[in-house]
Amino acid sequence: MPREHHRPVQFTDAEFAALQGGEDPALVNRVAHDTANALLHRVREDPDPAVVERLVTYTDVHGIEAIAELWARVGPHTLPGALWRIYLVRTVIRQNPEEVAYLFERGTQLIGTIDQAVAGAEEPTGPAEILTLSDRILHGLYTGDFAVALERGAAFARLTAAGATSVADDADVSAAERASALTTRAFRLAELAEDLSAAAALWRRESLD
Question: Which residues have a Cβ under 8 Å from the Cβ of 76 and sit 6 or more positions away?
């Protein structure tokens, strides 16, 4: 879908200092939107496989903090906010693929929706399959339908949230601390799913800026 993007802009040392210190919210917002638009526009115009692969694995090498510095402080229903959340999905998966695969599988057994098909994980979904899913979702941002990539991330988050809630219920009596941690994770994943779904809808309306 053709979209207009902001042209990259130059920043002074003082502006970068303000960004790093968080002293100017307007500047933080501007940098986040400009970098997200410039990056996405450039890569989707010429999706060189080597470049795409580096972007997919960027946080594996540099850490999620490198992305967070640019995109985590803007609203969820924006382009940089959506990009940040998809990278967050990948980080969640890669931090503990065994547990995430278990929670995802548990969720697919509980939810009778199309989310499993939308997410696109291979069945049965073990650690290797869940890692492959994280790669496919991020590849989709740069080489496929952007809205579909966001929807896949949302479907993954919904299913994993359902699985976490179910396991938390089982552990409520015998392992209260683990149950509390899983309940918190389920809430955050459900919130992440809502934000990604909303961003996908905005993209389809050409309103995700």
Answer: 82, 85, 195, 198, 199
- The letter for the amino acid at 157 is A
Q: How far apart are the first and last CA of the chain?
A: 14
pLDDT of residue 27: 83
The residue type of 125 is T
What residue ranges do the domains of the chain occupy?
13-204
In this predicted structure, the answer to whether residue 4 has a pLDDT above a threshold of 70 is no
Residues 123-149 pLDDT 10s: 889 999 999 999 999 999 999 999 999
φ/ψ of residue 96, rounded to 5? -155, 75
Q: How far apart are CA 176 and CA 85, in angstroms?
A: 29
To which residue do tokens 């207009």 refer?
4
Question: Residue 1: is its pLDDT beyond 70?
Answer: no
Q: Which amino acid is at 134?
A: S
Backbone angles phi, psi at 106, to 5 degrees: -60, -40
d(CA 160, CA 191): 12
pTM: 0.86
CB 133 within 8 A of CB 123: no
Which tokens sit at 190? 């459900």
Q: How far apart (Å, rounded) are the C-alpha atoms in residues 23 and 21?
A: 5
In the numeric block, which tokens belong to residue 112?
């009778």
What is the structure's pLDDT at 23?
55
- 63 and 180 in contact (C-beta within 8 Å)? no
Q: Which two tokens stand for residue 163?
A: 């699985």
